[in-house]
Amino acid sequence: MMNNALESAVDVRGLTVRRGKTEVFAGLDVTIPRGQITGLLGPSGCGKTTLMRSIVGVQKVAAGTVTVLGEPAGSTPLRRRVAYDTQAASVYGDLTVRQNLRYFARVLGAPRADVDRVIGQVGLDAHRDQQVDSLSGGQENRVSLAVAMLGSPELIVLDEPTVGLDPVLRAELWTLFRALADAGATMIVSSHVMDEALRCDRLLLMRSGRIIADTTPDGLLAETGASDPDAAFLTLIERDQR
């Protein structure tokens, strides 16, 4: 793993997180490179969201350090450099798509021109003047994603952004994620849909609060001898249980 903070977007060392009497992480170590799409994959409840919350600095931690873009996670210098899109849409239902984006652009200090740019990027041009409450669940999630893209953040953390979306829209969003990474952004995208693993540059596969594989899509298939990501992950789980 890399030790140079200038080469990595995220450096996690000895992370310990407890929820009540349950220990979610016990000394977790992981480094995430800059300028790539890192897929955080695994079943529901494995710790993906807790790790993402730790990276953006909104998770209470018992021990360890999380360094993001050379700064402590959640610190003031990161407020405009890091974006986080949660599983639950975090926009105002009584405002239109455009009104939501204008409001958050002012809060973030993002250029006004960003509003139309991100609306177009997430495919909501036809709904820009529609009230969010009248949108479908998938469309509402796309409004939240657009908010996360305001201001061209260096690190974009997306917690299951494609959940509930049809295959065509999922493919369109992954094309967008690739374009953002190619333009220099670091993307961390969580999912429990294993076929999305093939769209990432780097894979972190999690199970029960541990990272059981740190690899690439090609490496995952080659290491396990599996023909698809689902079979590969099942192979890794079987090995982990031995």
UniProtKB/TrEMBL annotation:
Keyword Coiled coil: no
Entry keyword Nucleotide-binding: yes
Keyword terms: ATP-binding, Nucleotide-binding
A GO term for molecular function: ATP hydrolysis activity
Domain ABC transporter as annotated: residue spans: 10-233
UniProt xrefs under PROSITE patterns: ABC_TRANSPORTER_2
Pfam families in the record: ABC_tran
Name of the protein this chain belongs to: ABC-2 type transport system ATP-binding protein
Organism: Microbacterium pygmaeum
Biological classification of the source: Bacteria, Bacillati, Actinomycetota, Actinomycetes, Micrococcales
